[in-house]
UniProtKB/TrEMBL annotation:
Domain of life of the native organism: Bacteria
Active site: 168 (proton donor), 255 (nucleophile)
Family: Belongs to the DDAH family.
GO molecular function: amino acid binding; dimethylargininase activity
Protein name: Dimethylarginine dimethylaminohydrolase
Single GO BP term: citrulline metabolic process
Binding site for substrate: 24, 66, 71-72, 91, 137, 249
Pfam families documented for this protein: ADI
Keyword Cell membrane tagged: no
Length: 263
C-alpha cells in the first residue's frame, strides 16, 4: 500500500483574494502581486492534479487575508481530520470555513477545543510518527490536545521546539519520502530527525526548505538551483513553482494545500 504521508487521493486549496496584501508577515518586504500570485497558484494546482489527485479549490475569503494558507487549519490523517486552533487571532475564523469541506471528506472529524493553540504548519506526518514543533503559533496545551486524539488513532507524537525566529516547524523542513527529510542545518542541529536520512539545504538556500512530496513529485520554490539539483541527483522528480509572492507572507509549498487520503 502506498504511504499515506507521501501519497494522496485529494488536496484542498483556497484561492488568494485581493485582501492577501494585508496578510501577516514577520517583516515587510513589499506587497504581494495578486495577479502573479494567482498564476503561481494555478501552476501549483495543475501540478498536484497532474499526479492524478483530485484537487478541491475553494473560493477566496476576503475577510481572512491569510486563508490561502489552508494547511494551518487542519491536520489530515488516514483515520480522520483534526481542526486546528491557530495561534494568530486574525486566522482563528478560517477554521470554521474549512470545516464543512473536510466534514464532507472524513467520517471522523475532531476539533482542538482550546485554550491551547496549534497550527498545521507546525506538524510533519512522516508515516511512522507525527512531529510537532512548538512555536509562536503552537503551544504545549495545543500539542497536548492533539496528542490525546492521536493516541486514540494510534499515531505516536513527538514534540520539539521550532527554532526562534522561524514561523513554523515546516518552514525549515519537509518530508521527501518516508525515510528522508529535507531540513535546514539549524533545525536538524536539534537532533529532532535522528533515525531519518536528512538532506541539508545548501548554504544560502535555506528558504527552499518548505517543499512537499505529493505522490510521485516534489514541489519546491523556484530560484534555488543548488537545492533543485541536489534533489534531482537524489532521484526526486522536482517541479518548480514561483513562490515569490507567498514568500513575502512567509508562506511556501506546504501551506497552500491540505493533502489527504480518502477512499
Ligand atoms: C501567517 O503568518 O500565518 C501567514 N502569513 C503564513 C502562513 C504560512 N503557513 C505555513 O507555513 N503553514
Amino acid at each position: 500500500m502506498s504511504n499515506p504521508a507521501t501519497h494522496f487521493t485529494h488536496a484542498v486549496s483556497r484561492r488568494p483574494g485581493a485582501s492577501v496584501t494585508g496578510g501577516l508577515r514577520a517583516e515587510d518586504r513589499g506587497a504581494p502581486d495578486l495577479a502573479r500570485m494567482l498564476a503561481a497558484h494555478d501552476a501549483y494546482i495543475a501540478t498536484l492534479r497532474e499526479t492524478g489527485a483530485e484537487v478541491i479549490v475553494l473560493e477566496a475569503l476576503e475577510d481572512y487575508p491569510d486563508a490561502l494558507f489552508v494547511e494551518d487549519t487542519a491536520l489530515c490523517l488516514p483515520e480522520g481530520a483534526v481542526m486546528m486552533r491557530p495561534g494568530a487571532d486574525s486566522r482563528m475564523g478560517e477554521v470554521a470555513h474549512m470545516r464543512p469541506t473536510l466534514a464532507g471528506l472524513f467520517d471522523d472529524l475532531r476539533d482542538i477545543a482550546g485554550p491551547g493553540h496549534i497550527e498545521g504548519g507546525d506538524i510533519l506526518f512522516t508515516g511512522r510518527e507525527v512531529l510537532v514543533g512548538r512555536s509562536a503559533r503552537t503551544d504545549a496545551a495545543g500539542v497536548a490536545e492533539l496528542r490525546a486524539i492521536l493516541d486514540e488513532w494510534g499515531h505516536p507524537l513527538r514534540e520539539m521546539q521550532t527554532p526562534d525566529g522561524v514561523l513554523h516547524f515546516k518552514t525549515d523542513c519537509s518530508l521527501l519520502d518516508p525515510e528522508t527529510i529535507l531540513s535546514t542545518r539549524l533545525l536538524d542541529a536539534s537532533g529532532c530527525f535522528d533515525g531519518y536520512r536528512v538532506l541539508h539545504l545548501p548554504e544560502g538556500e535555506e528558504a527552499a526548505a518548505n517543499a512537499i512530496r505529493f505522490n510521485d513529485v516534489v514541489l519546491m520554490p523556484d530560484g534555488f538551483p543548488r537545492t533543485a539539483e541536489m534533489l534531482e541527483r537524489e532521484g526526486y522528480d522536482v517541479r518548480l513553482i514561483d513562490n515569490t509572492d507567498c514568500a513575502l507572507l512567509d508562506g511556501g509549498m506546504s501551506c497552500l494545500s491540505l493533502r489527504l487520503n480518502v477512499a
